[in-house]
Each structure stands twice: as C-alpha cells, then as structure tokens.
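Standup notes
- HV: blocked on the assembly model, inputs below
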Amino acid sequence: MAQPENLLYSKEHEWVKIDGDSATIGITDYAQNSLGDIVYVELPRVGKQIEQFGNIGVVESVKAVSDLFTPVGGEVLETNGALEADPAAVNRDPYGAGWLFKVKLKDAGEKSNLLSASEYEKIAHD
Amino acid sequence: MSTQAFDRTASPLIFELGQDGRANSYVEAGPPLEQFLPKDALRGDLPLPDNSELDVVRHFTKLSQRTFGIDLGFYPLGSCTMKYNPRINDAMAGKREFAQLHPYTPDELAQGALQVMYELERSLASLFGMAAFSLNPSAGAHAELAALLIAKKYFKDRGEPRRDKVIVPDTAHGTNPASAAMCGFKVISLPSDERGRVSVEEIQKVLGPDTAVCMMTNPNTLGLFEDHIAEIAAAVHDVGGLMYYDGANANAIMGNVRPGDMGFDLMHLNTHKTFTIPHGGGGAGHGPVGVAAHLVEYLPTPVVRAVPNNGTGAPSDGFTFSLDFDLPKSIGPMRSFWCNFAHAVRALSYIYANGAEGLHRVSQLAVLNANYVRVKVAEFLETPYPEICRHEFVASAQELKKATGVKALDLAKALLDHGMMAPTMYFPLIVPECLMIEPTETESKETLDYFIEVLREIVAEAKTNPDALFAAPVNTVVGRVDETRAARQPDLRWTPPVSSRA
Amino acid sequence: MYTPHTEADIKAMLVAIGVGSLDDLLQVPESIALKAKLDVVPALPEYQIARRFEHFAAKNTGVDYVSFLGAGSYRHYAPPAIAALAMRGEFLTAYTPYQAEVSQGYLQAIYEWQTYLCLLTGMDIANASVYDGATALAEGAIMALNENGRKKVLVSRAVDPNYRAVLKTYCDGLDVEVDEIALTADGTTDLAKLAEAVASKEYACVALQSPNFFGNIDTLSPAARDAVNASETVPIAVVSEAISLGALATPASWGAQIVVGEAQSFGVAMAYGGPYVGFITTTKEHLRRIPGRLVGKSVDGQGRTAYVLTLQAREQHIRRERATSNICTNQAHCALIATMYLALMGKTGLRDVAALNLARSRELATAVSKVDGVDLKFAAPFFNEIVVDVHQPARDVLAKLQARKILGGVDLGRWYPELRTSILMNATELTTRAQIDQLATALGEIVRVHAGV
C-alpha cells in the first residue's frame, strides 16, 4: 500500500495528520504489516502532556510487542476507544478506523522533524 | 444424560459435568456454617460442581491422554533440558517423613530434611565452584532476581549505588532483562560476533564505572562455548562489575568446567533441567542461587548451618543442622518457606545416582548427542554455526523458507504429527527461522536416528508438497489454534449459566 | 546415569562427528579447566539411594508428633486419587504447554484452575499460578505500582510475616517503600489508621489478609473501603488458608480488586515448605497487568474447541525488560493437584471441610481456654487458627510440649515482640478430640508447674 501523501511520518513508523492545531496519529501500513495480528493497543491518558518522539504506549500483536512513540508533542485530546473492542481495525484500516489518538499541538514547528510520504517510503522499504 | 461422557475426543469442562449433591465421602458432613460465624462473614453460593470420584478420575485421565510428555516421546526442546525424570526421585520425595513434614517443625525434629538440603547445597557448590548456594528461590527466573538483588545490595553497601547498568548479550534468555528491570537496572544489549559469541572488544565498549552486572550463559543459547570467558570476566572485574552465570545450560559443563573458575561471582541453576526434576507442565521449578565468597552474606534467608558432632557414618552424618535466618546483610527471603524441598530431595537423589564422575559423563554424552544430531541435520538444513557445539545447537529454515515458503514453525508442527515434541523455535532471536535442538544424554542413538530421519523426510516434503506442512499437525487432537482470536477476545474462564447463579 | 550409550554407539557417533574422543568435544582454555577435586555425594546403586533416603527420613521425627502447627502451611486430607492422577507421566514430564496441539489436556486443566479460583474469590480472571502466596503478594503489589505509578505500598501487620518479608525483598529491588498498618487489641487491622494512611494518596495498594495471620477474619469495613476507593489505592486481599474460601464471604464482596494467595491447602503436601502454589485473581480492568501465564479458550482451523497460552506479549520472553514480571516457570503441577482436589471435593466436600475446620478450632479454643493460666488472646471471629496467651515465654511452653511429643504451635514472639507469651495454634479436619485433650492436659501441667502450684 502506498503511503497517503497528505500525512507526515516518523522514522518509528507512525503517521500524523495535522489539522489546524490538532493532530491525529496512527501507525503505518508497513508497521501493522510487520507486527502481524494486533491484539491490544495501550494509549496515553486523555489530558496527558506528551513530548515529540516520547515513548507513550505499546502495540501488542500475538507474538510481539512494540513501543509506540508520538511523532508530535502536546496534550492528548482523545484516544480511539473503538480499538479496545476491535484492535483489528489497526490491521484493516491503519490510516482510517485504526487511528490511535489525537493531540493538541504544542509547537507547530515540530513538523519539520517529520518525513514526507516519499521520504518515509524509502525507510519502510530498506 | 449427556452423550459427551462417552465421546472419545471431546473433553467437557469439569464444570459441565456432575450434579449438585453428588458428594464423595472424604470427610463427614460438616455442621451448618451459621453455627460458627455471623451471616455477613459467610459467602452466599459456592458454585462448584459435585462429581463422583470415578467421573473425576476419568476426566483427568482423559486430559492426560491429550497431553504430551517426555514419557511419551522424544522432546528436543532447546534450552529446556528435557531429559528422563527417574522415578526413584519421586519415590524418595513422596516419603511420608518428607511430604508430611511441616515447615515450622523444630530443627531438631527435622534433621533428615536439613541434611538433604545441606548435602545438596554442598554438592552444588563444589560442582560449580561457588562458595555457597541458597536453595531458597523457586525457579530460574526467581534465582536470577535473587542474584541481581544481591548485586544491588552489595553495591549499595560499598557506596556505589549508581552502578545501574546490566549487560546482557543478544542471545540471552528473556528472563535476564526482565529480572534486571525488576531491580531497577538498565539493560544494555550486547551484539554477538560472527562466531556467535561475545567478544572482549565489544564488551569493552560498554563497560564503565556504571557497570553493575554482566549476565551470561556459557555455553550460550546457540550452544557455543564462550571461549574468551576468562578475559571477559577480567574486563568486567576491572571496572568493578560482577559476573552472573545463567545456569540454564549447566547440563553441558558438569565435571568439565566450573562457573567459579570461569570468573563468575553469582549464578543460578535450574535443577528442574539439569538435575532431572520433572517439569510438571511448567513447574514447580527449583532455582538455587550460588555466590562467590565475597557475596555469601547477601544470600537469601534461610541458609542451612552444620555443626560437627562426633558422629560416624557418611561425611555429613556426623553433623547437627539448623536453619539460620540471622544474616544481617541478606537480601531477605524470596518466598514464604525455606525452599521447594520436595525438589531438593529429587535433585539430591539424582546426584546420588551419578556422583561427580557420573555427572561428568552426563555432560559428555549430552554434548555427544547434540553434535551427532547437528552433523546429521546439517545434511539437509542450514546450521549457521558449523562447529563443535555443546549440549544444543541451532539450525535455520531460512533458506528452506525462501525456496519453499515452509517456515521453522511448519517443520516444528510436522514433528508433532510424528509423536515428537517440536524444538524451541525463533529463539535465540539473532538466528532467523531458528530451530534450537537439545537432545539430552538420556536419548539412545536409535531415538536420535529416528528423529533425524523424520526431520529429513519433512524437509524433503517441504520441497515437494509444502501445503502438507502448512496444514500440520493433523494427527493431534486439535490442529493449529487460532491464537489471534484467543488474544483479541480473551476467554480465560468458564462462566456459570445465568440461571444457575444464586 | 540414565544414559543408554553403549561403547559401540559412542564410537559410531564420534566417527560421524569426526572427532577422536569425548574429550575432544569438551575443550576449554587451560586457564579455566577444572583442577579442583569435586566434593560431591558419592554415586550409589539405586537400592542404596533408597536406603540413604530411609536414613534421612528416619531423622524427621517431627512427623509423628501431635501437631497444631499452621501459620501458612496446613494439614488437610488429600484423597489418594489425586496422587494417582497427578503422577501420570503425561502430566509429570510435560514442559510448559507452548505447543498447544499436543498439550490440550494440560491447558484445559489450567483453564479449569483459573475458573475455580475466579469462582472461589469472586473475581473475573486468574492466572496460571505463581510460586507461592508470598510471591503472589509481591506480584500483586507490582501490578498496582505499574497501574498508578505511586512509589509506596501499605500492608497490614496482620499479614503473614513471611509474606511481608518477601514483599520487602521485592520492593527493595524496585526502590519502593513498604509501610505497615498497626493492629487493634482484637488482633485485626486498625481500619481507622488504614483510612488515615491511604488518604495521603501515596500508596499504590493496601494489603489485608483474611483470615489474617492470627486466624481472625479481617476485612475492609464499608467506611474503610470508601476511604481506599476515594484515594484510588488498589485494595489487595491475601488468602493463605484457601479452605476458608469455601465458607467465608468472597474477597470481591468486601472490595478487593486483586486477590493473592496460597492454594497449598488444596491437596498439596506440606513438604517442609514447598513446592506450593500461589494464585492471583483480579477484575477485568487489571487484565493487562496480571503477571505470568494465562490459558485462553479458542478454536482450531476446523472450529474445534482448543485451549492455548494467550496474551503472551505481557510476558518476559517477548517483552523482556518491559514485561509485567520476570516469572517464567510457575507451579503448574501444584495447580493441577489443586484443581483435582477441588474437582473431587466439589461444593459439598469443600463446604464440609471448611465447616469441620471451624468446628475443630472452636473445640480447641474451648479446651485450651479452660486451662488455668491460659487465655485466648483475641475475641475476633476466627477461621481455624487461634492465638493462645500462656502468660510466660511461649518458647518455654512449646519446648515442654515438645518433650511430650506435641508440636503446640508457633511462637508469635518470633515476629511480634509484644506477643512473646502467645502461641498460634491451628486445628483442621484432621485434628482429633483426643489430640486436643492431650494438648490441654499437657498445657495444664506445664502452666501449673510454672505458676508453682
């Protein structure tokens, strides 16, 4: 699957969609595919202040566990509650229904530390 | 009446069997509970099934027939040392005078039990070159935790609490980093070199004044002997760190080389591996922790003391034994009572069956069996480290997977169809499509030859009919289990039907 | 040695490998080669091993004494069917059931164990076991510490001193402070002090044992429960005498969120202290924090019911330093024994055993309290253990009882200096009227001599 052009990416295989001063975050198709069947996602509390690239949770698949890093810093606005009952959404639709959490951006300048779709493409296929 | 009771394959849950009031007569009927306690202190319903003894016996006999153990066939599970469990050990542990001995029995009335602990402790200390062992920890990981707590306290007492780095090779058992984390240590993972070993050069890069402990197993989990171990230990000691020996692979070294002589300060043993205590489906284990002289005061409590009297007989018969709880520097107890005593009996019984020379022979033949299987398996699977191994070796299905799509997992599942246990898979993590094979010394050449030929045929089938392997196992009571479903929709218990709830 | 090799086998195998001798396979650098003479017990033929262990066994004379010892290890009747089933080689010689297809029986038995523990404690989920009751408490506290990030734990002084000591060992490693709650004059936890302590919101959890170390029922009152919940402290219930679960109100009913304990009483031999079997049960909300193995029910490719180890990503072999615990080996075989015990006893048998324990311990209490100079220390409702004040050093009285082949109980002065004249005594369904009379008579004589009558 190609990486959507309208998103920004981190080296740790998270995507971020920036919309004004808020951002929606998830993991990439490449990440879900390498992890395999995802069974559980541990997300930060709503209201928590998080730092760019900080370790803020974990994604568990049947036989692996992977740290989750946030591509942008700020206050956690919302988490995707539907994943509790249906973690498979991250596998099925990583850029849509499988989104993880939303953040109120602290510093729009952090965008410059992220990758474009084509830059990320290179990492994911190395 | 349910027809399930006559079904040869399905096994209803014990909760789906029985009838209320179908009681056995193990004890007389008790008086009403309300006679003793106020109602609000008592529970309401007790929703357990009442079954006849015959139905319970059939239930568990059936469950046993759906379970594979060493007694049924070859069990080449790498790193787990699934050797024969001699029945004499269980007979000794089951003696009334051991099984019915209360842990608070005064020392003078439990001299036999204390003597068992003492003889085991002394034998292990000599065999592995340690000053002393404590039999207290309950399993390998538990002993690892004890050892790291000892290291932490030792550094604290020396005024060096900032030593907080634990060095762990990338081939280490997963319990190593997990135990380190439970003591607040930070884990540094050390890459293996192209020979599958830790190099002196690589470890020098991470050593420093913050080094607390280097945790290693030798032979390592690739089955290879770390031949630079003395230099590695010297380098760790030079910066003031401690060396920890993970004894999971001790079956490869008895009477041959001792952790104490290699430079290790701390170690554990899994007596349920090396000393033939049955694994029992995943425990109970037994994990003595051993230390060099400078760490003896830190051992978990209690330890067994022996004071010579003027007795005669075998060496330890002339002693009076006691439990010593008064070690001011001890890390404290790791568990409620003294040790998994029944297992100490089993381990000592096994050591009596061998003596020092016999244990040396055990290790020699364990290594012989592993190398024999290694050279034969190398005829049809990659063996990434083609040299003399110790008690186990790793093979890889990576090339096979590229050629046929058949993975290590598929080979393992196919072995189950042939009445053998699968090797350990996907460990150590540094070998892709890894199969880790440990035959143990108790297997005959015929059994090894049979295993080799079966595996050879399975690999051949991978090339002609891979689909058959993707479908394996087919001869077992169930096929591959849907693990994703189990994890996504956890069903971890039976729940009573709503109508039967009080 | 249990090695089947003939000389011919060895020779053929060495040839196949391409080395000349066994020694060639076990080369080590000269600097570390074994030089010491090993001091290991000597090799014996099997019949002499049996003789050697007869010799050890004969020195454990304490097994033939009349015993009132309890305090965390209990004498109960275990039907012989348990040993006959549990010693089957399929169970005894299996490894951890990682290969589900050939481990269905054991996995199902553990699923049944998990269910039994949930039903008994009133909780939602149980794990496949931990080492023992004391480590269960430590692991339960770690669950709470990971949950709310606080750095202190609170434990009642009425919790088994061994459990508290192990909790301390674990907490020292984690740099976590352990504070204790004082006792009331009734031998229970001071709930007012508990409520005051948790109000600081510094404690990750608070642990109470019921029946407590003194045998007394010791649960959270509604007011104490409110204080615990308001402070977001995790209430942990400790159960060291599992038979009590057959009679007493469930820990869930008085507010516990995590229940930890010891199931030795369910058919596992006292065996001088082990192996025993610890358990942890908890509510659904704590599922991701529970340590150790879990068995789940699923299906195979053909839709057949199949059991499997699940949620393994919590565990050390995958999560390594971020695991919920380092626990790997657990106590599967002891858990299997406990499951068999519960299956054989059933609801009726377990309730009867619990009732008989209540009855015998009351007979014991009545008999000893009639002895001049001997009193029951506490008036709180109890299960099957009592604290008996002999008004002179308990140690001396126990030694005199021992001279009459009676193990009268445990000297509480060992852990509680203020109770140095008190003995913890236990009675179970196996305790007879004659044994109780023997103890009471002996106590009467001993105490009278001390009083100079």
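- HV (later): unblocked. DSSP finds four helices and nine strands in chain A. Chain A has a mean pLDDT of 91.
- Next: hand off to the docking folks.
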